[in-house]
């Protein structure tokens, strides 16, 4: 029988895979060229994937105070990348949406990320890419079984990461 893996080893490997994957994606994005800070970029990414998210949920998801988030969103709003609107059902709630300009910038960056990932994965043979895909699918199934995800959807990932589903709509996942 094979070696028994501990929960600590599983957690370490999961964190390592997460960081490695995030690094591979962020290598493709030049935040200096975009004139964005890391906080701006993280905020934009959350707004892009959760259009209409409330300011409070966004602050929690980013991990900053409401005041810090307000300054960050103001800077993004001045550049025309996002817009804030009062919630129609409850005027005390402010929702944040991506503008057309913000959407274009995010789409351009996602295209660059996809192209870079395709180039890197293109170094693998077809059987190796098939094997990698099988391992990714098996990993997602095991993560679902462990309760980290129910189904590999953005809403379910919100639940796993933040402990609740975030408001706002999710765009369809991009094709890789």
CATH superfamily: Winged helix-like DNA-binding domain superfamily/Winged helix DNA-binding domain
CATH architecture: Orthogonal Bundle
Tell me the strand percentage band: 5-15%
Number of strands: 3
In total, the number of domains comes to: 1
Task: Supply the number of helical segments.
Answer: 8
Helix/strand/pairing category = mainly alpha
Calculate the terminal CA-CA distance, rounded to whole Å: 37 Å
Overall pLDDT metric: 82
Instruction: Walk across the major sheet and give the strand order.
Output: 1-3-2
Name the helix and strand elements from N-terminus to C-terminus, one letter apiece.
Answer: HHHEHHEEHHH
What composes the largest sheet? 3 strands, antiparallel
Report helical residue fraction: 55-70%
CATH class: Mainly Alpha
What would the principal axes of the Cα set say about the shape? globular
- Our Rg estimate from Cα atoms comes to 18 Å
Brief synopsis:
This protein is mainly α. It contains eight helices and three strands.
Describe the model:
The chain is mainly α. The protein has one domain: Arc Repressor Mutant, subunit A. It contains eight helices and three strands; from the N terminus they run H-H-H-E-H-H-E-E-H-H-H. A three-stranded antiparallel β-sheet has the order 1-3-2. Strand 2 and strand 3 form a beta hairpin. Helix 3 (38-49) packs across helix 5. The longest helix has 22 residues, at 100-121. The radius of gyration is 18 Å and the shape is globular. 15% of the residues are buried. Mean pLDDT is 82; it is low at 172-176.
């Amino acid at each position: 029988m094979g070696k028994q893996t501990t929960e600590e080893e599983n957690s370490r490997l999961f964190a390592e895979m997460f960081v490695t994957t995030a690094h591979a994606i962020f290598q493709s994005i030049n935040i200096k060229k975009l004139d964005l800070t890391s906080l701006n970029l993280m905020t934009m990414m959350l707004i892009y994937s959760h259009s209409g998210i409330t300011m409070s949920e966004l602050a929690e998801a980013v991990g900053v105070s409401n005041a810090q988030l307000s300054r960050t969103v103001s800077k993004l709003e001045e550049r025309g990348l996002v817009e804030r609107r009062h919630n129609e059902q409850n005027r005390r709630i402010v929702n944040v949406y991506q503008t057309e300009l913000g959407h274009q910038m995010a789409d351009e960056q996602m295209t660059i990320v996809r192209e870079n990932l395709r180039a890197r994965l293109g170094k693998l043979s077809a059987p190796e890419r098939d094997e990698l895909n099988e391992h990714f699918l098996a990993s997602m199934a095991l993560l679902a079984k462990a309760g980290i995800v129910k189904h590999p959807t953005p809403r379910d990932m919100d639940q796993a990461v933040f402990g609740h589903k975030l408001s706002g709509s999710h765009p369809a996942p991009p094709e890789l």
